[in-house]
Structures are given as structure tokens and as C-alpha cells.
Amino acid sequence: MGNYSVLIKNSAKNDLKKIKKSLLKEQFSKIIEVLKINPYEASQSFEMLQPKHSARYSRRLNHQHRVVYTVDDEKREVYIFSAWSHYE
Q1: Among candidates 3, 18, 15, which has minimal Cα distance to 71?
Q2: What is d(CA 1, CA 19) in angstroms, rounded to the nearest whole number?
Q3: What is the CA radius of gyration of the chain?
Q4: Given its phi and psi angles, is residue 8 left (phi above 0), alpha (psi -120 to 50 degrees) or beta?
Q5: What 3-state DSSP class applies to 82?
Q6: In Å, how far are 24, 28, 75 from 33, measured between CA atoms?
Q7: What letters, b where the CB count within 10 A reaches 16 and e where it falls short, cover 7-32?
Q8: What are the pLDDT digits (tens) for 10-66?
């Protein structure tokens, strides 16, 4: 494991603007560092989202917000699809 690139999809770019203005910047940075090393590490409330065949994972920023991503192991890339609330 290790040395994954983390790429932000267009769907998450507005979320990043919100994170930069919030108190979640540090937590988001920690998640990015974990994703670069091992996107499957069981930390930060790591979970596989349903349905399982979608191969999407999430990690919690806090009780309301989470980072949703997929992993391409062949390319060693992590794609972030959202990084804000899934309740809004």
C-alpha cells in the first residue's frame, strides 16, 4: 500500500470552498493524508457505502459531513466525489 494520488472531481469542488471557510480544514487534511497512504485504512469512521457494487467509500469529517470517494488501485488514484454534508 501507499503512494496514492488524490484527485478532486468537479462534483466536490464547491465542497472544498465550504471546507476552507469552516473549522474542518484540518480534519479534511488528515483524511487526505490517510487516503494517500492507504485509502482502505479502518480509521475516521471508514465505511463502504451501499450498494456495495458501487465501490464508494466514506470517511467522516464530523457527525454531519463526510468525504465520499472511490479508489482505482491499478492507477493508484483516489477520486473524491463529495466532501460536505449528505443531508443538505
Answers
A1: 3
A2: 28
A3: 12
A4: beta
A5: strand
A6: 14, 9, 18
A7: ebeeebeebeeebeeeebeebbeebb
A8: 999 999 999 999 999 999 999 999 999 999 998 878 998 888 778 899 999 998 999
Pairing state of beta strands 77-82 and 5-8? parallel
Question: What is the grid cell recorded at 46?
Answer: 471508514
Q: What is the DSSP string of 14-39?
A: HHHHHHHTSTTHHHHHHHHHHHHH-T
Which position has the grid cell 462534483? 11
pLDDT one-digit tens code per residue, 66-83: 999 999 999 999 999 999
Domains and CATH numbers, the chain: 5-82 (3.30.2310.20)
